[in-house]
Amino acid sequence: MAPRKSREAIDISRVRENQALSHPTGGPEGHRPLKLLEDEEVHLQKGGVKLTDFEVRGTLGTGTFGRVLLVRHRSSSNDPSSQSHFALKVLRKTEIVRLRQVEHVNAERYILSRVHHPFIVDLFATFQDSLNVYMLMSYIPGGELFTHLRRAQRFTPDVTRFYLATIILALKYLHSYNIIYRDLKPENLLLDSRGYLRLTDFGFAKIVDDRTWTLCGTPEYLAPEIIQSDGHGKAADWWACGVLCYEMLVGYPPFYDESPYGIYEKILNGHIHWPRGMDPLSRSLVRAFLNPDRTQRLGNMIGGPQDILDHPWFRGVDWDALERREINAPIIPHTSSSDDTRHFLHLPFPPAAEIPGLIQEETTSAIQRFDPIAYQFLEF
Ligand SMILES: Nc1ncnc2c1ncn2[C@@H]1O[C@H](COP(=O)(O)OP(=O)(O)OP(=O)(O)O)[C@@H](O)[C@H]1O
C-alpha cells in the first residue's frame, strides 16, 4: 500500500554527534575532508543581504519544527533570467532545542554551505532573529517527486533510471567527502524547472569517518543496521536507494506497515514481495541494494559506487552527460513564472509575529546579546 501522506522523519539521539560541526570554527581538521570548501571559500553571500530585503510570497511546506517560505528579493529586477525568488527555511529555535536538534541544524548549515552539486539544492545565506534560524535556498518550483509519483502511481524503468541515476551521482559526490545523507525519500527530492531532481533537507546529513549510531531517518527507508543500532555509514544510503528504486517502480515501498514497529519487523525479516510485472534485471538491482549484509551491498563493496554505475540495469546511461544536465528529463513541470507555486500545497501565510526578523530588522549582535538560545547558532 502506498502511503499518501508525506512520511515524517524520526530521530532518537543515542550519542552526542556532529560535535565537530556545531563547533564555531568547524572542529578538528581530522573531521574535514580535504576537498570540501573551507570556511573562507564557502559560497554563502550574506554580505549586504538582510532578512528584511525579502518579502514573503507564500508557504511552500511545513516540517517538524518550522516551515519553508517562498520569498522574493525586493530590489531584484523583473528580469526573468535573474533569480529573485528563493525558498526560505524557517526553523523555530525553541523547537530545535526542545527536540534536541541543535547539532543537526548546525550540521545542515555547515554541510549545505560547503557542497555544490547540480542535483543538490543551493544554500545562499543563513540568518537568525530572536525566534528563528533561517536558511535561504534556491527555489525549486516543480514540487516533490513524492507528488509526481503518487499521481503517476508508478514509473517505468526508464523514468526510474533517470531519477535514480541522478540521486546516485549526488550520493557518490557526498560520500566522496565522507558525508552521509540519511534521509533519502521521494518527499525530499524536488523537481527543478527542467525536471531534474534536487536533493533537499540535509537535517540528518553528517560527516563520518566510519560509522555513527544515531537512530534517524524515515521508517520505510531505514537500513537493518540502523534499526539494530549496529553503527551505520554510507551503506545505509545505498540501502535507501534500493527502497527508492522499488517505490518508484512499484508505487509503494518494499517494507510497509501501519506502525513503525511493524515496518522495522518487515525490514529485519527481509522478505520482499515482487509484483509479477517486475522484470528480473530490476529485481536484481533492488536485491543488490537491499542486501542486509552491508559488506555485500551494492555500492559498499570493494568497487565502491562505481559498481552501481557498472550494473547492467544502468547500461546505456551517459553518466557525464547526465551530470552536465544534457539529457532530457522525463517530466517537465509546468511553471509559468519563477514564483509559480502550483506544485506546492497552498498553506496559510505565517503570522508576522512568528517571523519578526523578516518584518523588522533585528541586528545579529543584539540578538546574540539578549537571546539565551542564540549562542547555539553562532554561525547563522
Ligand atoms: N528549496 C525549496 N524549494 C521549494 N520547496 C521547498 C524547498 N525546500 C523545501 N521545500 C518544501 O518544503 C517542504 C519541507 O522542507 P524540508 O523537508 O527541508 O523541511 P523540514 O522542516 O526539514 O522537514 P522534515 O520535518 O520533513 O524534516 C519540502 O518537502 C518541500 O515541499
Automatic annotation (TrEMBL):
Residue numbers binding ATP? 89
EC number(s) for this protein? 2.7.11.11
Catalytic reaction list? L-seryl-[protein] + ATP = O-phospho-L-seryl-[protein] + ADP + H(+); L-threonyl-[protein] + ATP = O-phospho-L-threonyl-[protein] + ADP + H(+)
Question: Which part of the chain is the AGC-kinase C-terminal domain?
Answer: 315-380
Q: Which PROSITE patterns does this one have? A: AGC_KINASE_CTER (PS51285), PROTEIN_KINASE_ATP (PS00107), PROTEIN_KINASE_DOM (PS50011), PROTEIN_KINASE_ST (PS00108)
Chain intervals for the UniProt region annotation (Disordered): 1-33
- What residue spans carry the Basic and acidic residues bias annotation? 1-17
Keywords assigned: ATP-binding, Kinase, Nucleotide-binding, Serine/threonine-protein kinase, Transferase
Gene3D superfamilies xrefs:
Phosphorylase Kinase, domain 1, Transferase(Phosphotransferase) domain 1
Xref: Pfam families: Pkinase
The record's annotation in SUPFAM superfamilies points to: Protein kinase-like (PK-like) (SSF56112)
**What name does UniProt use for this protein?**
cAMP-dependent protein kinase
Per the UniProt record, the source organism is Lentinula lateritia
Q: What is the lineage of its organism?
A: Eukaryota, Fungi, Dikarya, Basidiomycota, Agaricomycotina
